[in-house]
Request: fold
Amino acid sequence: MSEFLIYKLILVGSVFGITLFVAAYSTYAERKVAAFLQDRVGPDRAGPFGIFQPLADGMKFIYKEEIIPVVSNKFLFVLGPCLAMLTAMMAGVLIPWGNTLIIGDQVYSLQIADLNVGILYVFGVVSIGVYGIMIGGWASNNKFSLLGAIRASAQMISYEIAMGLSIIALIIMTGTLSLGEISAQQAGGVGGDWNMWNVVYQPLGFLIFIVCAFAECNRTPFDLPECETELVGGYHTEYSSMKLGFYLFAEYINMFVSSAVISTLYFGGYNFPFMNDLGLDHNTISIIGTVVLFGKISFFIFFFMWIRWTIPRFRYDQLMNLGWKILIPLAVFNIFLTGLVMILLK
Amino acid sequence: MVKTVPLDYYLWLAAALFTIGVLGVLYRRNAIIIFMCIELMLNAVNLLLVAFSTYLNDASGQVFVFFIMAVAAAEVAVGLAILVMMYRNTKSVDINILNRLKW
Amino acid sequence: MLTLLLIFFPLVAALLLFVFKPQSAKSIALTAALLELVISLVVVVEFNKTGGPQFEVNIPWITSLGLNFSAAIDGISLLLVLLTTVLVPLIILSSFSKTYDKPSTFYGLILTMQMALIGVFVARDGLLFYLFWEVALIPIYFICLIWGGEDRGRITFKFFVYTLAGSLFMLIGLVYLYFQTPGTHTFDIQALYDAGRSLSSTEQSLIFWALFVAFAIKMPVFPFHTWQPDTYTVSPVQGTMLLSGIMLKMGIYGVIRWLIPVVPGGVAEWGLTAVIISVIGIIYASCIAIVQKDFKRLIAYSSIAHVGLISAGIFTLDAVGVQGAMIQMLSHGIIVFALFYIIEIIFDRTKTRALSELGGIRNAAPILTTVFVITMLGSVALPFTSGFVGEFLLINSLFQYKPALGAIAGVTIILGAVYMLRTFQKSMSGEANSRTASFIDLTGQEKLVLYPVVLLIIIIGIYPAPLLEISESAVNTLLQSISAVTASAN
Amino acid sequence: MENSDLAQYLPIALMFLFAMGFIVVTMIATHALGPKRKSKVKLDTFECGIESKGNARVPFNIKYFLVAILFVLFDVEVIFMYPWAVNFKELGEPGFIQMITFIALLLVGFFYLIKKGALKWED
Amino acid sequence: MNALFVITGLGIVSLLAEFGNLKRWLTAFVLVGLTAAVILAALDWNTTQRYFSDMLVFDNQALAFTALISISTILWFWLSVDYFATQTHRTDRTSLVIFAVVGSVIMASFNNMAMLFLGIEILSMSLYVLAGSRKDSLSSTEAAFKYFLMGSFATGFLLFGIALIYGATGSFHIHTIAQTIAANPAGLPTFFYAGVLLMLIGLAFKISAVPFHFWAPDVYSGSPTTVTAFMSTVVKVAAIGAFIRIFSSCFVAVESTWSLVLQVIMILTLVIPNITAVYQNNVKRMLAYSSVGHVGYILLAFVSSPTETGTIFYYLTTYSVSSLAAFSVLHLVEGNSEEITVDYFNGLFKKNSWLAVTITIALLSLAGIPPLAGFFGKYMVFAQAINHGYTSLVIVAVITSLIGVYYYFRIIIAMYFNESSAPSITLTASQKMLLFVLIALTFALGLFPDVIMTLFRA
Reply:
């Protein structure tokens, strides 16, 4: 019992730490990527190549003055960012970060928890994130914030439907909701026992999913809730100090988790091609797998940023039309197609 | 499945939730809160159904929960629409002003 | 077949009225009523006086309820059918001098009423009887409501609810009996008789009251009469005539046909009570009549008194009494019709019904006065008028039943004489006043209505035997069957 | 214990504790460490430097509301597809046809919505 | 079932008619479809068909209710032509009504609690919207809101009851439940009986039995008159159909649990609304209370003999026809006014005797005066109750029906007695035709009740 607890504690602790770390360095990465794409230098003062910039940012958040507008609802004003942060942190629990490690005769899974409702849990937690934004925006009692919050909620819930639908086609294939199993099903990959990554079977589903993931994270080209040209800061206009930090953190954590989910669902998770043909022992493969997974995640995080600095923002009606009138029908079509093919191949 | 919690607990919990919901509907005056109380009643039912379903090893209870959830969602949609309409006509969601039709 | 024709011819005629122009409604209705009279006369001619129920029809109607369209005519029915068919053309004729709004509806309702009345008198199925009984209420209610006088809404409603309430209790009683019939339940009259007689005395008593209340309200017998004076007063005169001339006989007929034979045990137990109630009613109504100021109201109360006597006579369960009741029903029907018509004539010309404002009509209208005198004498039961035969027989049977009651009931003749003569004195004799000075005597159309009535009053008074013969065998059969039951019970 | 239902959720609870702890500690830390120099203007809501007017809690476009309602409806309908999708292989062809019927009905409603202009934002 | 398919298809088509060039043909199409549904129901007569793994069973009772519901709806469409006159709302209103009919049919044919629940909800959800379809009127909104609240509140009770019964018997299938009950006459857990009572309460809300009726008058008087007509006919038929379906087939084995409760409810339902109706000046409210009162008679029939559903069906038929007649006149008289008092009927006989005669006949039928349909309805209820030894309850019912006469006659008296200066009303040929049909039906049902009574005797 206690051993189990300690193992889980370590796992949870490390995932927690890594999440924070990745989120912090994503901000740095984002600025560097932006600079790179715009042919600038980017942050370079704090430490070599500005490598301590995230730490400096963090300190600044902590030491800044806390401002809570008089007309706002104090409790909700504080609750908003906390909720956003909390849900963001909770979403990553079910990601299988790697295969099992065998130490002695004990098998340790690198997934914190493998619920049989895995994907549903992720969706459930992510959709609570809307509350963080909505509550924060409404509590500020600022017109910009309110508009931003409403936009954010409308956008996020709209894309949630398409996202949910796009997953269904995948589930038809995998027959399970558990992320661990979905990962395991993609083992091997190209060569070996010829398990392809799901993206091969579900290109359309992947496309829909990643578009929705962008929208869910309020990332450009879907960052309508905080588009500074119209809404100043959107839902976090009134926020300062660590509460603002939480919102920003939450965004980057979400990006990180989304990338992880995408990698797991469509890109084989911790599996890599020819993994079973290298003749390495199980633990080594698992560790390599984890590294590979982080590689994939990093790529998707980079992809998020790449898109951000490449594609301009949508107009709001374009955004809604894309979500409702294109992605949802497409997702339904994808379900139909997948089902049909499955039936025919059987 | 290990049924560590006795069925009675679920029953009492559901009954308590349901009662809270009923009392809420009867005593609260804010339409939104009444909505929520009704949802609470339905969720008490859901809880009960799921518990029974587990203890009877019969999936139909859970399917019924799906039905209830779907219908409750539709009901909320209609209810909120009515509420908006009411707000437009009265600028309030306090049901006390809806006394015009009393005999 | 003849029975069906008798029942439904008025209804067809009533529907026809709506096809033609409203202006011609009057004459079509009169023609129809006269044809109906002819049909009834054919029935009289064809009727076998010793033959029991005749002209039977028995058509299955609502089998799931055990309801058959079962009707037949025996002596008792025939007399009342005859009363109806004679009075309805007279009533229609009496309305010729007036123009009513929506005449098609008015005459249609009268004819529908006639249908229902005849249906009540010939039905030999419990539920069918009940149906006609209720249907009779609808047209008369609307006649009173639409063409009535002041405050008619409230008053006619009271009338409606009273009678409906009574009949609903009757319905419960009938249904209870229905479920007592053996095998597939049926409402057939004989089956109901058998079922009723086999009940325990408590059940019989309950059913007795359930039915008696319905009939008593319809008649009306004291203390169920409170709807009656007001309703008679506000109704248009044709409505009053229908109510008092024919409709009240439904109640008496109900007692004879559907109460006494069905629960003889109940009648044996409660008959005396019924008689006492009736006698109290006679005295009460007569006393009230004496102090009435309104002519129409006065006649209304006198009607209660007469009906009380009839009711008392029937509950003696004596052949003479029942026969007397039959004759008295006919006699009362025509006399009260004539009286109301005379009141209407007076009202038309003087615009008042208050006795205190009348007087001196005798000088201006001798014919009217003569007619009134004859009718009045009939009403107070002077010998050689129809009233005498009936009242004599009734009081006679009451004497035999309980001499004391007979004596008290006999007072009615004296009281009747008192209020009728007072009426005569107040209205006809005395000084003419501004209202009555220019009183015009009877017109031709009015004579056409009143002369036959006067004739009938006198003929029946002198030679009632044919009428008595018609009902004799039916009454005897009825009473014998009851006495057989009560005898076997003892 | 390891395999029981509740134990599966234990790590999630742990994670929750970690996250909560982090949030609470950070919030308290900023509250304690940051400077506190309040002024009326600073505590006012931001409206691009102009004095802020009125309450921000004004009724907003009904479209957003409509979107919310539609989301609730569609999202709940999507729930029905998950069990079906998981059991797709067992249900086979009849299940597929039934679900297609279901989705078709859903699409009828969807089509109706679009045609009715419930999702029309450009106006 | 074929009827159900047709009606469902009809609903979808009328929803989509918005976009084709089909709007003009919509009413005709709906009428044809509903007629087809009636015919299909008639063709299925005497065949008991089971669908969706026994979730829906179309036996004779279900088919009869289906036909009744469809026919009432046809008549209702006829009387509420102007409700669909506005172009913008024609298709959605039509489809809402049709979907309500779908719900009604399911409520009459369910064999599984899930279907009961779905049927009720499909019906109610459409009605919530229809009740509020006069968007600018506060009373309409209010009616919709109250209806919604009470509807979902009742659903809560119903569901809790269903959940408890499921827990006790392990099934949602009515027949399985009935078998379980029969198999364990003493072995059912206590909460099963609580479940039955909760379902009773839930359904009592739906059929608006006292003391769960208080929403009905508000909702009936607030909704547009045509919608009220729909509620008090089709919806009431469906609710009662569902009620008797579950209680007469499934819970009849545990009759002792609910019989007494239902008797109390029944007596209250007879007495209270009939007395309250007397004090109403708003005709719609009066009819609402009257319609609650009629539930009392139906319950009387049900209490006295739960398995004899023929009587109830006949009663519902007569009630629907009479109510439709009453409401069609009410609708024609009201014009544009929101609240229609008894005074609106002043002198109606002079203004338009068609209307006056129709509503007179309708009210007389509702009051139970022979030879109209309503009389035989009441008669059969009373006869059935007397037959099963409930004579004292019948006496209560008789007294309340006399009270009923009182308020029905207020309208009649107003029409024939009072004078009015309001302008007379002219009717179109179609309206006259409708009134004629309704009068004819009222008489025909009264004169030939065997046509319906023998349906259930096979």
Remarks:
- Chains C and A do not touch (no CB pair under 8 Å).
- Chain C has a mean pLDDT of 87.
